[in-house]
Each structure stands twice: as structure tokens, then as C-alpha cells.
Amino acid sequence: MTATVFAAWPINDECPVDHKASRPIYRVKTDEGFVSFCCVDCMQKFAKSPGSYPVKKKDVSK
């Protein structure tokens, strides 16, 4: 059950579109995991053209 909770957590802390702090409520599932965004507008921009916005993954080794 714990693995399911962590699997849904976003892989990033920064919005790949606006480079602001992301909010887990705005997220899209990708092949690499869930990507979160700062707002619904950025989430929609990413969904239209995901290759245009590289995702900076958070460092989970800390």
C-alpha cells in the first residue's frame, strides 16, 4: 500500500513550463511518472507538447 502512495507522487518540484514551484494537485502521468505543474494552464500547455518542456527531476537521494 505504501508503494502505491509514493508511485503517485510527482517526480519534480519545479514547473517545467514556468519554472515556478509546482503543486501536486496539478499533475499529468508520463512514462517516467507524474509531472506536476504550478497551474492548470501550464498543465494544459505541457499536455499539448510535452517534448517542448524538459522536466527537471527532484533529487530523491537526500
Q: Class by helix and strand content? A: alpha+beta
N- to C-terminal distance: 23 Å
Describe the largest sheet.
Answer: 2 strands, antiparallel
Q: Give the averaged pLDDT, no decimals.
A: 88
What share of residues are in beta strands?
15-25%
Cα shape? globular
How does this model look, in words?
With 62 residues, the protein is of the alpha+beta class. The protein has one domain. The protein is 24% helix and 21% strand. It contains two helices and two strands, in the order H-E-E-H. A two-stranded antiparallel sheet has the order 1-2. A hairpin with a 2-residue loop joins strand 1 and strand 2. The longest helix has 9 residues. The chain is globular, with a radius of gyration of 11 Å. The termini are far apart. The mean pLDDT is 88.
Summarize the structure.
With 62 residues, the protein is an alpha+beta fold.
Which helices and strands, and how do they pair?
Layout: H1 2-7, E1 23-30, E2 33-37, H2 40-48
Antiparallel strand pairs: 1-2
Keyphrases for this structure?
2 helices; 21% strand; 62 residues; single chain; two-stranded antiparallel ribbon; alpha+beta
